[in-house]
Amino acid sequence: MTQIDAGWGAGPSASYETLAATFRPVFRQIAAGAVDREVARRLPYEELALLKVARFGALRVPREQGGFGASVPELFALLIELSAADSNVTQALRAHFGFAEEIVSTRSRAWQANWFERLVAGDTVGNAWSEVGEAKQLTFSTRLDRDGERWRLNGTKYYTTGSLFAEWIDVTATGEDDKPVGVLVRSDAPGVEIFDDWDGFGQIGTASGTTVFTNVAIEPAQLVADEGRVRYGQAFFQLIHLATLAGIGRAAALELAEAVAARTRHYSNGAGARSSEDPQVLQVVGRIRAAAYAAGTIVLKAAEAVQRAFERRIAGDEAGEAAAAAIADIEVAQAQVIVSSLVLDATASVFDALGASATRRGVALDRFWRNARTLSSHNPRIYKDRIIGDFAVNGAPHPAQWRIGKVA
């Protein structure tokens, strides 16, 4: 069934259905075990392995290099579909797709060719960016120090989402000149320890815990190329969260509709003989589905802004890239305010159409709100209204990539 037939609207291109058909069987397999994984807290190793075999991580790699050549909107449409299957899997791949975007758009051809080969082979990349405790906003306690012809990496990172499943870890550290530096580390390298100690109430299948680097040997080829980072990275990374939220909303709408259709018990003061015939229950179902539809539509519109920034970069138009990236930041911020509200409200309202039995742990309907609430806490939305208003009134740009930690 196409997206159009399912009522979710057309994909972002004429060829989208052909592209999506490649991965939908895998998405169905992932969705089939989502509730069991949630209840048992089983990490999605097998599911991510299926995606690696399908070369899902090479979506943005050009066809002539062995990838699928997907556009930015096509990528985000597929991330919505994957998130509807299991949002934990999308979140586990967030760092990977951010890194892959940098590879697709880098001006370093040698760096690009090396990583295209790895992405097409199925390698994925996790992250080790954030630090907790006494971490400062503008520096990293994790350090990369020279050791003869190579370097040694030492430090502890948290929120290292996806690293437990990945072959590589994208690490940020303080270099020998006390400036930030990026480095790619093998996840199985001596001195690397990854722990599944994430204890949040949502996104529990992402292994977003601690990674420790102890005297890890780093070769020069593992340093991130200077031209590796993209101006529109902030918008791109945040939009992955929004695509994940849109997928959560879609999954909640679909599971609710199935539950209402199958429900035989009903209340004596209901407005119909069965839940499926009760106009008040149908109204709840319809409102939640409409919220999911709107969320997905907004995400794909914002993805067009990111695509424009990518095209300016590929064209070598630095001024155009900067301008397009600035607008993409604003469009994604506008999307964040609405999408997060739509999905949080929708996932909290699911239970209004069902009885108390829907709160049983084995049904796991609570995972939708818990996951949406957790995702909506990233890059807090409370600041976005002000940022958008400042742009509208004063023409102020969105602030640069945000960092978290102590001020001094």
TrEMBL record:
Report which superkingdom the organism of origin falls in. Bacteria
Q: Residue limits of the Acyl-CoA oxidase/dehydrogenase middle domain?
A: 141-216
Looking at the UniProt record for this protein, which Gene Ontology cellular component terms does it annotate, in alphabetical order? Answer: cytoplasm
Per UniProt, residues of the Acyl-CoA dehydrogenase C-terminal domain are 241-378
Keywords attached to this entry: Flavoprotein, Oxidoreductase
Q: Choose any GO biological process term that the UniProt entry carries and state it.
A: fatty acid beta-oxidation using acyl-CoA dehydrogenase
Example GO molecular function: flavin adenine dinucleotide binding
Q: What is this protein called?
A: Acyl-CoA dehydrogenase family protein
Organism encoding this protein: Kaistia nematophila
